[in-house]
Amino acid sequence: MLMNNIQTWEDGKTDETVFFGFKQIFRNITCRIMDVLMNSKKSVLQSFLAVLCLLTCAPLHAQTTYESLRDGDAAYDRSNYSKAEPHYRRVTEKEPSNWNAAYNLGNALYQQGKYEDAGKIFEKAVANAPDTRAKADALHNAGNALLKQNKFKEAAKAYENSLRLRPGDADTKMNLQMAKKKDQQEQQRQQQEQQQQNQEQNKQDSNQQNQNQQNQNQQQQNQQNQQQNQQQSQPNSNQKNTPPQQPQQQQESPSQQRQRMKEEEARRLLETSIGPDDKKNARKYRSAQQRKRPAVGRKDW
Hints:
Blueprint: H1 12-37, H2 42-77, H3 81-94, H4 99-111, H5 115-127, H6 132-148, H7 152-165, H8 170-241, H9 254-273, H10 276-292
């Protein structure tokens, strides 16, 4: 399903026939020229050697490119992708527009799990594709590389572009459905993660608000306790400054109050009934009585 289009191209077989035909022709020409030059002058030999150098450059270059592609294909067929990679890469460095080398290099990188590098090479292959079929294959494989990188939207776009060039490809359609499904799942996962993050943030905010409210209540309680302590300590200080109160006298009973009132009334009556002269005579009388009292003699016995 996913890997049906990950394969090397076999167009090199045609190039191989052409190359060997060209090689045989070039060998025949070289032999004939050498036979002619055996009886020629030195100047002609020098000219021929110069021309020979120019003619051999192109065949040798073609042979190196062909051999690199051939060796890369042989290693790829043996599933030795790491060994096939440098052969394909050597050709792409010499011939950046060589579509076969770029396409097969992308496949070798993909098989090694180098999906990002493979995607970049497939993009180059898309740009240098020689026909619609080659471009559709490069787009399909580019979608595969993007799908492996979890770039589902980009992969779906690559598959859609491939289907525009080749609408009936069943594998590309199936991969497109897979990319869209995974993209939908990824969006749902992101939404769930966002909701979970929002819930956690709301929980943290709520806990912070509760903590702030508790701190505020504790501060208010501390202030109230401090005010109560100040109010309790204030009367004690006032009490120290006030003079001690005199003990209250014991209340008299009603009978005692009446007795005391009678004595006071009798005293007032007595004072009012005795005049001042009588008081003087009474004092004189008491003093005279004291003088007339006989002296007590001393007993002789």
